[in-house]
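User: Teach me something about this protein's shape.
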Amino acid sequence: MNPTKQTHKKDSKSNILAHTQAKLDLYIKYLEKYLRILGYADFCKQINIFDLFCGEGLYQDGKKGSALLTIECINDVKAELLQSNKIKPIKLLLNDHKEKKIENLKSIIDVDYQENDFIEIFNEDFDEILRIVTSKLSKFPFDNRNLIFIDPFGYKKINKENLENLLINEATEIILFLPIHQMYRFAEHTLKEFEKANIESLYNFIKSFFCNPNDIKTENPFVFIQSIKEALSMNNKYFSCSYYITRKKGNYYALFFICKNIYGLEKMIETKWNLDPGKGKGFDKSSNDQLPFIIEDIEEENYLYQLKHLQEIIFKAILDNTYHNNVNLYELVLKNEFLPKHANIALKNLIKSQKITLINKTKDFGINYNNYKYNTIVSEFKIL
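Assistant: First, the predicted structure itself:
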């Protein structure tokens, strides 16, 4: 074993936990899709990745954190693109506010990743790195695309204004990790007793997104997550979705995704469903402790329930005449965190049960991004 690597392992803070692994799985699997799609896209001339709370690289058990996983993902995709004669710059900015973590990370990169000229490393607090990144984004031409991973130590520095500053060029996507269990625990008190210092940060977070802080829903953690997800769309200026992560009963985290382009939303939702085939909503550690055949039964039951829920959403939309063709149904389905393939099944079931009828006779409903982008209507539906 490389003695340098052994030293890094001893310096790392802790072993990687299941909820942390779930967070990294979603981030890296989406990153792989993101890099490949943009890598082959002619309109995109450079890809920029930002990890603003990157940590030191290795956990005590030797597993890699977001910084090293991102480097390896970039190198893998660059090698694949090179084989297809697609040479495109992919830049990476890494930052952590703790100097020791950055020193450890630099030493790992210097030893194990010799070709690292595409990496910038910073040791700044959130306010300063936010200023640096915002300045960089403002200078990038529109043919650059940017993905920002924000995994803060809490939520004190996160508010609507600094997220909007990062999104303002409309060529940027954000993946944000928040400790829902901390936030939810104080949420109801925050709305009533916001003057207390221990919950002032949460009140400020909520107030930055809601004109009336009492509008945030706190019936349970999942409703709370949904409420934050909707707020992160910035009054429907952006698309957003969420992915909950359960560490143990009552201990929830969530990843939130924000983007301007609906195709990015589709790829993130696709990633969620790949990781959670039953619901497409999140990771529950307790379900992973079940036997494989039990997991399969639970996933099948959940999947059928979710499809039934989507059928109800689509039927109501057609009934109200708000969504009734392939173009606007594509948006409706994604905003409810389902995929076009789910819409196809739901529509076939609704037609089979004689609740709706297809006006245009077509083999394919045409619920996809290209038809949405070019407003190509190939199928329309009405209530029977």
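Now, about its shape. DSSP finds 15 helices and ten strands in the chain. The chain has a mean pLDDT of 88. If you'd like, I can walk through any region in more detail.
User: That's plenty for now, thanks!
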